[in-house]
Amino acid sequence: MARNPVLRTFSRHIMKPLAFWLLALPGLWLGWQWALLLSGQPHDLGFNPIETTHRFLGDTAIRILLVSLAVTPVRDLTRWGPVMMIRRRIGLAAFWYALLHILAYLGLDLFLAAGMSVSGALAGLWRDVAERIYITLGMTAFVLLIPLAMTSFNRVQRWLGSRRWQGLHRLVYPIAILAVFHHGFMVKGNQLGPWIHGGILALLLGYRLFGMIARTRSQPSAKAS
Questions:
Q1: Which of 82, 105, 132, 140 has the greatest count of CB atoms below 10 A from its CB?
Q2: b/e map of 95-116 (b: 16 or more CB within 10 Å)?
Q3: What pTM did the predictor assign?
Q4: Averaged pLDDT, groups of 10, the chain, 225 residues long
């Protein structure tokens, strides 16, 4: 498939900028909605724009994280290797949306809506981390995501070495599990969103586990031959 000249041109010149703008689109939409709100125009942020904002950012972070986990299966199933070139960009986008999600909760929910000082908002955040299980899960996922974002660059990857780098970045799987449970515990009632995210994650984890089992079984036969 990579020998197709159209796909080769797309991979080299279009895929990366297209991925950038697609990943930026949710943030641009949210910024536009806030511009409409602040200018007194009709908007789609609902009756509680602050809650809508930080939940939208959190949902976006989880979805992009799941997309990043799907890149390798897409490569394996389609045999289109160039898709791996955008995996790092997708992973970094998940980190930035997760960071904005936390900043929105800290700045909009606690600082502005609750009228806390900066120190009070920080204290409120850590109190919530200690007392609310869904915030504990979400913050743990974000803290684990930080070293992945910091080591996503080629120079750091070379410094760590391939084996250590790959071992570190396998943290993305428990991070995704924590993020999905964070979403599930956060929502009220039996909403569909967390179930969809959980189902997608289960498929991706199942694919990963199946691949590990297949490789383990093939190693003895390869040695015997």
A1: 105
A2: bbbbbbbbebbbbbbbbeeeeb
A3: 0.88
A4: 63 84 97 96 93 94 97 91 90 97 84 69 83 93 96 89 90 96 88 94 94 75 52
